[in-house]
Structure formats: C-alpha cells, structure tokens
Amino acid sequence: MGSSAGSGNSYDYSFKILLIGDSGVGKSSLLVSFISSHVDDLAPTIGVDFKIKHLTVGGKKLKLTIWDTAGQERFRTLTSSYYRGAQGIILVYDVTRRETFANLADVWAKEVDLYSTNQDCIKMLVGNKVDKETERMVTREEGIAFAQEYGCLFLECSAKTRANVEKCFEELALKILEVPSLLEEGSATVKRNILKQKPEYHASPGGGCCS
Q1: 92, 135, 181, 194: which could join 21 in a potential S-S bond, CB 3.0 to 4.6 Å?
Q2: Using 50, 70 and 90 to split pLDDT, how confident is the model at 90?
C-alpha cells in the first residue's frame, strides 16, 4: 500500500471529501485513523482542518483532500465555501449517542441540501464507535433505514480499532469514480488548469480607507 509523499501530481483524479456531523462523534479520529496508523485522543477541531491522502482504488490513483470540520455552531460561518465542489460527503454519528444520529436528519442533511454545489455528490452515512457495542443506542437497522431514505451509502466503523475505516473512504471513492460528472471535476488536468488562473481578487495596496 504505502503512499509516497513525493509523488506530487502523479494521480489520475483529485477529490474533495467532507466529514460532517456533531462535535465529538469522531470525525477527526476517523480521519487520523485513515491517514496514519495510530489514533490518540484528539483535541476538538477548531474551525476547519484538512488532510491529503493518496490511494489507489479501482486501478486509479487518487488524491483525496479530506476536510474535517468543527461540529460547533460558532464555526458555521465557513459553511458554504466548505461544501463548494465536494465530490463526497461523509455524515458521521456516534452509535452510542442517539442525539448525534437525530441531528443528522435535523441539521446536517438539511445543510447538505442547502450548500452542496454538486447534485451528484456521493453521500455516505457512517456510524462510529462500534467498539462500544454494550453502550450502543442506535441500531444498525436504523442506520440502514436512514441511508436508504437519504440516498447514502452506509457503514459502521470504529476509529479506535480501525475496523472498516479504510473501507469508508475506499467505498466512497469507488462510488465517486462511477459518476461521470464527478470524474470530470476531479480529473488532474482540469485541476491544474484552474490553479493557473489568477486569484479572484487583490487586496488594495496601501490599505487605504476608501475602497
């Protein structure tokens, strides 16, 4: 497996993946578990953080830029730019905390509808913390039902034991690869052309009071 950091632009497609869900459901832990081989207790994410992971799925070399967001309300101002251009969205809840599951329907799914710029974007529902089976409050069946209603893929996993963590991202990537419009957006050549364009705005030199 192993991803070489020095591989630079040698990928076929680059996809933007979002992790959303309540604070404390384990979004950052999932990400760290996927990227590296150990998960320590992580401090809550402040604002937005992202990590890059190169992997090969379905014979294609992919560069995944995975955005992790703070679940807290006060960071919600970033929202629209955060969702813009995402090819995949992972909705995470904690199987031991029912409210984190309820909030996916009440808060997060609505937000995806509101802000997601890609109609074809692939959504995946992930129930985390299955290592705490004795404390489980949300059944697997409920997860499956939610996923069917909202048109999501579904997996349960444990960031702690790393069970199913890679599978979450790999299944999501495989599904994105099946959608022509998302493939086109993620193609390496398109991405490089966009980067060559000028930035949209320039701060006025001198920073005078009158703009």
Answers
A1: 92
A2: very high
Dihedral, CA of residue 52, residue 56, residue 61 and residue 66, to nearest 10 = -20
Spatial distance between the Cα atoms of 87 and 195, rounded to a whole number of angstroms: 18
211: how many CB neighbours lie within 10 A of its CB? 6
Write the pLDDT tens digit of every residue in 3-39: 444 445 589 999 999 999 998 999 989 998 888 765 5
| Position 137 pLDDT exceeds 70 | yes
Q: In the structure, what pLDDT confidence band is assigned to residue 114 with cuts at 50, 70 and 90?
A: confident
| Cα 75 to Cα 94: distance, rounded to the nearest angstrom | 21
In the predicted structure, residue 164 carries a pLDDT above the cut 60? yes
Distances (CA, A) of 194 to 53, 132, 138: 21, 45, 43
Strand pairing class (88-94; 122-128):
parallel
- 66-69 CB contacts, 8 Å cutoff, 24+ apart: 66/17, 66/18, 66/19, 66/31, 66/34, 66/169, 67/16, 67/17, 67/18, 67/19, 68/19, 68/27, 68/28, 68/31, 69/18, 69/19, 69/20, 69/27, 69/45
Could you give the domains of the chain?
13-193 (3.40.50.300)
Residue 168's H or E segment, with its range, is: helix 165-177
